[in-house]
What we know:
This protein has helices at residues 15-23, 39-42, 54-64, 78-88, 95-102, 104-113, 127-133, 163-172, 234-251, 284-292, 296-305, 340-343, 379-386; strands spanning 4-8, 27-32, 45-48, 68-70, 121-124, 141-145, 155-157, 179-183, 192-200, 203-215, 219-228, 256-264, 270-276, 319-325, 331-338, 346-351, 358-359, 370-376, 393-398. It is an alpha+beta fold. Helices cover 30% and strands 30% of the residues. The strands form four sheets. The protein has an eight-stranded antiparallel beta sheet.
Amino acid sequence: MPKKLLLLGGSAQQVIAIKTAKRLGCETILCDYLPDNPGRCEADRFYLVSTTDEQAVLKVARREQVDGVLAYASDPAAPTAAYVAEKLGLPGNPYKSVVTLCSKDKFRKFLVENGFAAPSAWGCPDMETVLKKREQFHYPVIVKPVDSSGSKGATVLRSADGLERAAEFAFSFSRCHRIVIEEFVEQKHPFLIGGDVFVKDGKIVLWGLLNCHRDPRVNPLVPVGKSYPLRLEAGDIRRVKDTLSAMVEKLGIRNGPMNVELIVDKENRVFLIDVGPRSGGNMIPELLGDLFGVNAAEMSIEAAMGLSIHGGFHAPTGFYATHNLHSDRSGVYQGVRFAPELERYIYRKCLYKKPGDAVEFFDNASKCLGIVFMKFPSAEEMQRYLDDISRYITVEVRGSEHE
């Protein structure tokens, strides 16, 4: 009789986990609050249940007598997966630790209490608290929900101007209606450090650390792609790895992927900005597969099912990058054009839109129109194209659906 895996979320980027689980011989049960998400067509059984409703998902897990539960590439569903696993004695990481990682104010508190570098931060449950604490803030600050990912609801403020508007924006993206306002730490390196690591038996065994690219013309906070190798000095890389290893140990994380975002400041201190107990979005697992020869979805499923985690990693060779297609205005998608000189370096295109579809201004990661994968012959060639990527990729958008 096949083992049963409960999957939380069936979006386009999560379908790979469902397909991989079926290929590994698992019976797949899917929970999602959207009835038309593509995962519904792939899973063996579907329940129209919110992945953040812990009790409802637990009820499904008990009814199906599942052998494992997985929130693939999903921050909101990660605590639910940990909760169900803990209640049913299934493989998983400590519920308390997962909740800490998924709540930005709790994570900041954990960092301070355990001696990690952390910016000053103020948790606020309502606008009254924001206004009451406004004299305490040390600008620049970043205002963001405690429970969102993909830069949803985040704003950087250089002064108190716009504080109320930024707070309202952050509250609008928070499921628990709580935001955090924290000091904005200036990095010493050209790119934010991001990507995925993978933990096996309490130790990080895969270091998928990448450069995180932004498009300041559109939104300086939202990632628009990744590149490898990491542009960081050897001493800083060592400090980053030591910091992440210490965090994993303190939280008691045993197995599974972790999506990380961090910086090193001018005093060589490592700041953990965000850490999610799940695989990254924007097809980071696929990029790491190209780099290291691993199947990240397979490893995540093995961890969730308590199976022996495979993964014979090889050292990456080459210079890789991804770019998230996006629009600087809302309207109707017409298509995308790639300059011939860049086209020769593109080896994979994943397009989410077709001509005539509505597109939105790129103010968070969910507005991505597709992802392209590139491999370059040298770091210099890669940087030359990435520094001016809008010259080589044109997303064509008509003004509105009514034009």
